[in-house]
Here is the input.
Amino acid sequence: MKAAAGKLGVLTVGLGAVSTTFMAGVESVRRGHSRPIGSLTQMATIRLGKRTEGRAPLIKDFVPLAELDDLVFGAWDPIPDDALTAARKAGVLDERDLAPVADFLAAIKPMPAAFETKYVARIQGTNLKTGTTKRDLAEQIRKDIRDFISRNDLDRAVVVWCASTEIFITPGPQHATIEQFERAMERNDDAIAPSMLYAWAAIMEGVPFANGAPNLCVDTLALIDLAQQKGVPVSGKDFKTGQTWLKTVLAPALKARMLGLAGWYSTNILGNRDGEVLDDPASFKTKEESKLSVLHTILQPEVYPDLYKDFAHVVRINYYPPRGDNKEGWDNIDIFGWMNYPMQIKINFLCRDSILAAPLVLDLALLSDFASRAGMKGIQEWLSFYYKSPMAAAGLQPEHDLFIQQTKLKNTMRHLMGEEQITHLGLEYYT
Here is the structure.
């Protein structure tokens, strides 16, 4: 495995609420003003060997990850605001937290974006790339990556999609092979969305790519095959932050106890840029598909029809400007138990969307870089822990159960570092 020596560039697509909260938070930690709460790579431990051995180092002390001091940030965005201005407009962080890192954020200015309003209708931008074809725009993104690495004397880089949700796109022949994909770029096919251009460019440059939105992006046959050919780790999709995160906790609990589900109604209000984008039906369709997939996969109604066949699952998202980034999610869960007696669970989660997402960006950047140095390539299923709609190998159902995902995440680390995987069988008591 290659060492984590030198500087790591973290390039985000989008310089909005999530990206600026992530960047401001890392710099705040580096200056000693805060702690990286919410980040497994920085704060979680990992058990090694038998419980009796008492070995449980911090993940960051066990796995050779890039140091926070070695991270260098860059971004693309259709809005030309620097990171400080963007952070103030996003309204996630208070001025008392922005002021100590204001000089750092003000120096981060977004590169022109490959962006079209037809894919994200509620955003108008002026900081845009121009080119005759989508292939031309993608080649410009490749040059941006090379120039950023050279300009900042970086050893390597990762790209994380932190931008808005694009309209819903169904996979087609344009996404089946890399030859068809590249021809579609050259003829400006509508099936090739901007997010796909960034994914293609990153893979072509040998740079890991993580997709934090529910867009059809790197999760196509063409780009997965390209990642395999180029030896590049890719992962996605859609950061698992608020309401869906809780679903991946509660649904396994219902299934573990063999309690039935009659229906799960979820609604959200939020007022940030993401909420405005999702107010557009075409963009909401993409998010809805991501959110709806979770329960069916966890509960397996085809295996447990008496408990989960035909349960109602409704998801709503409403744009409400006064709430800003402070999203509120309501869940009404109708369950049934012994002798079919009904019960209810109600949840009111007043979360801060970008506060939950920022540490995920950090972990995905560090772990994607680790995977690259470990020689891993293609879909990184072990990173499913971080996603609402995780990618999986062809023919396999993605794993949504948060606790199985966490076990796989840590066992992959153990395996790569030459330690035994933990099964919790406790066989030492029977030998």
Summary: Residues 353-373 form the longest helix (21 residues).
